[in-house]
Amino acid sequence: MITLDMLRQIILALPTTEGTTSWGAVSFKVNGKAMLFWNPIHDCPVFKVPFEERDHLIEMDPETFFTTDHHRPHRLVLARPERLDIEWAQENLTRVWRAQAKKAVVKAWDAEQ
């Protein structure tokens, strides 16, 4: 079972990330861009993914991944916390961070790893 606190730890371990709120819900950003939302209606995380990946995830594992009419037009996928793999979540969040963080921050982080 993945919790919001577990995701918070993963995200805030990445440089220049911050916890905030968006539309009244918990979210996390880097460089002013959202990385992850916590959907209070479904009590689950909302991850950024390309459309093709979202559709593939839902098709391959509909018990874990899903979308809603509200989220469908966006590159987002919702995940049931009790079924979500922590390694997938960490890989997704790191990938999103790398795409959205300032390049100098990513380069410095890579040099430290």
Gist?
This protein has about 110 residues and is α+β, with helices and mostly antiparallel strands. Helix content is about 40%, strand content about 25%.
Overview of this structure, please?
- The protein has 113 residues and is α+β, with helices and mostly antiparallel strands.
- The protein is built from 4 helices and 6 strands.
- The protein has helices at 4-12, 51-60, 86-100, 103-112; strands at 17-22, 25-30, 33-39, 44-48, 65-66, 76-79.
- A 6-stranded antiparallel beta sheet has the order 1-2-3-4-6-5.
Instruction: Give the number of DSSP strands.
Output: 6
Biggest sheet descriptor: 6 strands, antiparallel
Structural class: alpha+beta
Instruction: Name the shape in a single word.
Output: globular
From N to C, what is the helix and strand string? HEEEEHEEHH
Mean pLDDT: 96
Helix tally equals 4
Calculate Rg over CA atoms.
14 Å
**Low-confidence runs:** none
- Fraction of residues in β-strands: 25-35%
Separation, N- and C-terminal Cα atoms: 28 Å
Q: Tell me the strand order in the biggest sheet.
A: 1-2-3-4-6-5
Indicate the percent of residues in helices: 25-40%
